[in-house]
Design a protein that fits this description.
The complex is a heterodimer of chains A (153) and B (552). Chain A has 153 residues and is mainly alpha-helical. Chain A has six helices and no strands. Chain A has two domains: 39 residues; 99 residues, no CATH class. Among the domains of chain B are: 159 residues, no CATH class; 32 residues, no CATH class; 138 residues, no CATH class. Chain B is 38% helix and 30% strand. In chain B, strands 3, 4, 5, 12, 13 and 14 form a six-stranded antiparallel sheet that branches. In chain B, strands 1-2-15-16-17 form a five-stranded antiparallel sheet. Chain B has a two-stranded antiparallel ribbon with strand order 6-11. In chain B, helix 11 runs antiparallel to helix 13. The longest helix of chain B has 44 residues. Chain B is flat and about 120 Å long.
């Protein structure tokens, strides 16, 4: 094993041990908080986080954020900062602003229900771009006669 | 003039035919993957030609003579000087020309050119300026002493008192949890001394002037060229260099194509017995093509060489020798499955050279099939077929290059599987990571500090984690894949293999990302990405403003 690999392994092990120690420490704190009734269970939080992918929770989150977004829009309209209607990308911009501005009022779960589907769409777009790129590369002709078909790495 | 044969039709005797068939069987059996091991028995001999191969070897004798004016010590009497300038020396009459091929290099003095004169180095004084002291008679000697460093007092470091912020853990009895606070503590720090590099000692350098020992403080020494004798013998020297240049060429039977002739040259450079059939000598520079160009074999060889043989100044060409040698060879035209092929039997030992054969035809057929499969994008099957082609000795660099390209394309399916798995894993694990970052609060105290200072939320960290994983997924290349993951014929299996690798890699990188977030590395990475994005946006804004300014 080379010195570089050995160093990487040591750093990795130290990182992992540190992470494990801190996670255990945080878990203990969380348990104490749950016992005292200051926090809800980890399983409950996790299941609500996964339910953020459902369309109904996204709809609920949008409904929850709508008055705050409209409030921001009305405020800017009265100040004369905007003349656009509240729809499409304009509305999306106000929703994002509302999620930042009224984070505590909207709640973490609703915020997640808007952000996670957006993340999913981004990942699907990236996957599509990569697939198209691979597909186009595989479509290029390849034969013994054609010397110009060398695959571009 | 020797008899030259250009493909004369002959017939094989029964013994010769039997020998030929046996040889062909041996050759077919030696080729891995070829099914018809008794090819020699099934082939039909159509025609046999006595077609010797001729080798022409042209050797040229060169004679080069260079003159040089030089000096030597005057330790003997000089003969009377008869030659006073270079123009009086005829270099070509001084020495005889070689009559046989000779390789030598020697130097001689030219008689009658010697005369005594002042030494060119000391101009007849017998002494020259001393190199060591430059004529001063005095030199300076370097003295190095080690003394304690003045800046650190010989300790190698300097001390200073500083205060440091430290995290102190304690139990909060009001909130009933373990928590932390920041306290300031004084420390003594040692600064490494930059003047002595931490050694505590420094070099004290001084110079002492003293008399030069080479010239005993005189400033001059005895001339090394004339050894203090003041006079030297000046004379002309001739360097005689005789050497031979060679050109080799071959003449093959007319039924051998140009590209096959090139392959045969390599074979002929080995242990083939040649029989000299003609030796022609041409004197001086008269490389007369006209006389020899009408000659069979010799004429075609000479046509490939230039009319004048190149030579440098002061060089003469004494003679050339054209040596034509013959190598016994037979050309056999034979038939297998209604197709005709050509082979050659070289030398008396009958070394087999197949110009074309059923095997080369089979290789060509397989290559056609590979091309056809490639056209239909069936790279796995094409790769499997190409492996068969590469077992034949006829396969070369083109086949190896094709194999490399096919493997590159096959690896793409595996890479697709890897990326797909990474994307799916990222989607499935995202809520878990987000919950871990926000709810469990498992960050180190300095992570908290960094996140507060840098204004980075757990949500942003989750997003950045997936940006890192996506970048890793896109950078995954063939070289990083295991060979057994893409050298599979079925494309679906290749995608599946890639998918499995992708899951393994995703879990590994997710663990790394979580560990990095907890120990506080990820907030710094987030900050760097944030700055990079800000710079990119600023550049885009400036460029768009400039465009507006120019075109708007």
């Amino acid at each position: 094993m080379s010195f570089k690999k050995l160093l990487c392994c040591i750093i990795g092990i130290v990182l992992l041990l540190g992470a494990l120690y801190l996670s255990y420490h945080a878990y203990q704190n969380k348990q104490e908080q749950i016992k005292a009734g200051h926090a809800i269970g980890f399983k409950q939080t996790l299941s609500s986080a996964y339910s953020a992918y459902s369309f109904s929770s996204m709809k609920l989150a949008v409904e929850k954020a709508r008055p705050y977004a409209e409030k921001l829009y009305q405020k800017e309209k009265t100040e004369g900062k905007t003349k656009k209607e509240f729809k499409g990308f304009t509305a999306l911009g106000y929703y994002i602003d509302a999620l930042d501005e009224y984070e505590d009022q909207i709640g973490e779960q609703y915020k997640l229900a808007i952000y996670l589907p957006v993340l999913l769409v981004v990942l699907i777009i990236v996957a599509l771009i990569i697939s198209i790129r691979f597909g186009l590369s595989a479509m290029r002709p390849l034969s013994f006669e054609n010397k110009a078909t060398v695959f571009n790495k | 003039m020797a008899q030259y044969i250009n493909a004369q039709k002959i017939n094989f005797s029964k013994a010769e035919e039997s020998r030929f068939r046996k040889l062909f069987n041996q050759w077919a059996a030696s080729i891995e993957g070829y099914e018809s091991k008794n090819l020699g028995d099934v082939l039909k001999i159509i025609e046999v030609y006595d077609s010797p191969i001729y080798r022409g070897l042209i050797r040229s004798q060169y004679d080069n003579r260079e003159l040089e004016n030089t000096y030597k010590r005057a330790n003997k009497e000089c003969p009377p000087r008869t030659i006073t300038s270079e123009s009086q020396i005829n270099r070509w009459k001084l020495l005889s020309y070689p009559t046989e091929f000779t390789v030598l290099k020697k130097s001689y003095y030219v008689p009658g050119t010697e005369y005594i004169t002042n030494c060119p180095e000391c101009a007849g004084s017998g002494s020259v300026r001393c190199n060591r002291c430059g004529g001063n008679g005095r030199t300076s000697r370097k003295i190095v002493k080690t003394v304690p460093c003045k800046d650190c007092g010989g300790r190698g470091y300097n001390e200073k008192i500083v205060t440091k912020r430290e995290t102190e853990y304690y139990y909060d009895y009001v909130r009933k949890i373990r928590t932390f606070r920041e306290v300031e503590k004084p420390y003594t720090e040692r600064d490494y001394c930059v003047y002595c590099h931490g050694s505590g000692q420094r070099e004290d350098i001084s110079y002492k002037e003293e008399s030069c020992s080479d010239c005993n403080a005189k400033g001059y020494v005895t001339c090394g060229k004339c050894n203090g004798e003041k006079k030297m013998i000046n004379y002309w020297r001739i360097t005689h260099n005789q050497y031979v240049k060679r050109h080799t060429d071959y003449v093959f039977p007319s039924m051998i194509a140009q590209e096959d002739a090139l392959k045969m040259r390599e074979l002929l450079n080995g242990t083939i017995t040649w029989q000299v059939v003609e030796n022609i000598r041409i004197n001086n520079e008269d490389f007369n093509h006209a006389e020899l160009s009408s000659r069979p074999i010799v004429g075609s060889m000479l046509a490939k060489f230039p009319n004048t043989v190149e030579h440098t100044r002061h060089t003469a060409i004494c003679f050339h020798n054209i040596e034509v040698s013959e190598c016994e060879a037979k050309t056999v035209i034979y038939q297998v499955d209604k197709s005709q092929f050509v082979c050659m039997l070289i030398g008396s030992e009958w070394r087999l050279f197949t110009v074309d054969s059923p095997i080369s035809q089979r290789v060509n057929d397989l290559k056609e099939q590979v091309n056809d499969l490639c056209k239909r994008h069936k790279y796995g099957k094409a790769w499997e077929l190409l492996q068969k082609v590469n077992k034949y000795p006829q396969a070369g660099s083109a086949e190896a290059e094709m194999m490399e390209q096919l493997e590159e394309r096959m690896a793409m399916a595996t890479r697709f599987g890897v990326n797909l798995a990474m994307m799916i894993c990222a989607t499935l694990v995202a809520p878990f990571i987000y919950t871990l970052f926000t709810q469990l609060d498992a960050f180190a105290p300095w992570s908290h500090f960094l996140m507060d200072k840098l204004d980075i939320t757990p949500g942003a960290m989750t997003l950045f984690s997936f940006v890192i994983i996506a970048l890793v997924a896109m950078k995954y290349k063939k070289v990083e894949l295991n060979e057994s993951s893409y050298k599979i014929v079925s494309p679906l299996k290749r995608v599946f293999k890639g998918f499995v690798i992708g899951i393994k890699e995703s879990l590994f990188y997710l663990t790394v990302v979580i560990a990095a977030a907890i120990v506080g590395v990820l907030p710094i990475v987030c900050l760097v990405i944030k700055w990079a994005l800000t710079i990119v946006f600023m550049i885009v804004a400036i460029v768009s403003m400039l465009f507006k300014g120019i075109f708007g």
